[in-house]
Design brief:
The chain is of the alpha/beta class. Helices cover about 35% and strands about 25% of the residues.
Length: about 270
């Protein structure tokens, strides 16, 4: 009798047990230019609130470094570069490594010359041309070497200095940093370690949006648009992705009103 009662209670209790499987979470791996860090993290918060089943995982770095990682097999679903060159490499591969029709620009930016807010080394600096003055002893810029360039911001800087006819003159003062945020830090700290040697930094070139997040630097001058290639952020979805619909959803979100308002109004990027 006891056994029968126990069996009946077990059957009844099972009717109230939720046997539905736990909801799954989709991981989306986004490799993005380091200058997008703050804006993309804010956008991630909004996107995941609206899409709780998606976990966006970022890898930030210099665009050329990220390209090398992707070419070596890194599990990127989306790549957002700070220049067209790195995306071109993937798109023009045979076969193309980008999903057809997925490429688009999500934002634009401007290049600025910055200096520390505290004297003495660069208190009188007023323009890119002023970098030729003898009191400016060290200039931090992104590593523009490589094909395509390792750090797009460094390549844009090289183009601006070349446009003004002072690149060769300044070559002995230029110290190369691993990414644009490393340039910002070098100007904030007035030093950059290069090859194990600490160099004094008087100024540097970063994006306008990088300068805006620091109260330790001042904008000396904004480069003219015509002095360099257009500063754009192209996005592409990798053909290797196994979460194509999620990648397309996030890509579309980045050009939608919520994300674009964050890019422009919160962080100072320009419309694509």
């Amino acid at each position: 009798m006891a056994t029968a009662v126990t069996s009946m209670m077990l059957v009844i209790s099972l009717q109230f047990v939720n046997l539905s499987p736990a909801s799954s979470v989709t991981t989306l791996n986004v490799y993005a230019a380091i200058s997008l860090t703050n804006a993309l993290n804010s956008i991630k918060t909004q996107y995941q609130t609206a899409n709780p089943s998606v976990n966006v995982v970022y890898t930030f770095g210099a665009s050329g470094t990220l390209l090398s990682q992707i070419q070596a097999g890194a599990p990127a679903d989306i790549f957002i570069s700070a220049a067209t060159d790195q995306i071109d490499v993937l798109q023009n591969s045979s076969p193309s490594k980008l999903v057809a029709g997925s490429r688009k620009n999500i934002a634009k930016n401007r290049l600025v010359l910055i200096a520390p807010t505290t004297p003495p080394v660069s208190a009188a600096l007023r323009s890119f041309n002023g970098l030729t003055n003898a009191n400016i002893t060290g200039i931090a810029i992104g590593d523009y070497r490589g094909t395509p360039p390792l750090v797009p911001a460094g390549n844009y800087t090289r183009q601006v200095l070349t446009s003004r006819g002072i690149f060769t003159t300044l070559s002995h003062k230029l110290y190369l940093a691993a990414n644009v945020r490393a340039v910002l830090t070098a100007v904030e700290n007035k030093t950059l370690v290069v090859g194990g040697v600490t160099r004094t930094i008087s100024a540097g070139a970063v994006y306008k949006t990088d300068a805006a997040i620091s109260n330790k630097v001042r904008v000396v001058e904004t480069a003219q648009i015509a002095e360099s290639d257009p500063i754009v952020y192209p996005l592409g979805i990798l053909t290797r992705t196994t979460v194509l619909s999620t990648a397309q959803s996030f890509s579309n979100y980045l050009t939608g009103s919520t994300a674009q308002n964050i890019f422009r109004n919160n962080y100072g990027f320009l419309a694509p």
